[in-house]
UniProtKB/TrEMBL annotation:
CDD domains: GGCT_like (cd06661)
Domain (Gamma-glutamylcyclotransferase AIG2-like) ranges: 6-133
Name of this protein: Gamma-glutamylcyclotransferase family protein
InterPro entries: AIG2-like_dom, GGCT-like, GGCT-like_sf
Species whose genome carries this gene: Streptomyces orinoci
Signal sequence annotation: none
Gene3D superfamilies according to UniProt: Gamma-glutamyl cyclotransferase-like (3.10.490.10)
Any single Pfam family the record assigns to this protein: GGACT
Spans traversing the lipid bilayer: none
Length: 136
């Protein structure tokens, strides 16, 4: 598995509560970034990113320290309700390009809502304006 950076857009962003619990002290770089081709929807206290061709999500590109990379990623997978191939996942972790302010587009791990959940969110969910969470 490649040691890609992580694109975060919700409670794992710097300054949010899960950043302090799971990422603080385990990163080597944090940069503002955006994910094109996705939109945000309200979840139960956290957002879901859903593929959406003409939208974007604002967040941060987090580079994890190499020494603890696998352990931190495993912990984040559990936090996000993701296990490879599990039928009850909330998210899928996928590698996608994200855009930095410099115009660079490095690949990063992104937690996206599963296709079934994404369909439900598009149909009955509450979109988050401008792809920024929290939006208030």
């Amino acid at each position: 598995m490649p040691q890609l950076p992580l694109f975060v857009y919700g409670t794992l962003r710097p300054g949010r509560h899960n950043y302090a619990r799971y990422l603080q002290g385990h990163t080597t770089a944090e940069k503002p970034a955006r994910l094109r081709g996705a939109a945000l929807y309200e979840g139960p206290g956290y957002p879901f990113a859903v593929p959406a061709p003409h939208s974007q999500v604002h967040g941060d590109l987090i580079t994890l320290a190499p020494a603890g990379y696998a352990a931190v990623l495993t912990t984040l997978d559990a936090l996000e309700g993701y296990a490879p191939g599990a039928p009850d996942n909330l998210y899928e972790r996928v590698a996608l390009p994200v855009e930095l302010p410099t115009g660079e587009r490095p690949p990063a791990w992104v937690y996206l809502a599963t296709p079934t959940l994404a369909h439900t969110l598009r149909t009955t969910g509450t979109p988050i304006p401008h792809g920024r969470w929290p939006h208030h």
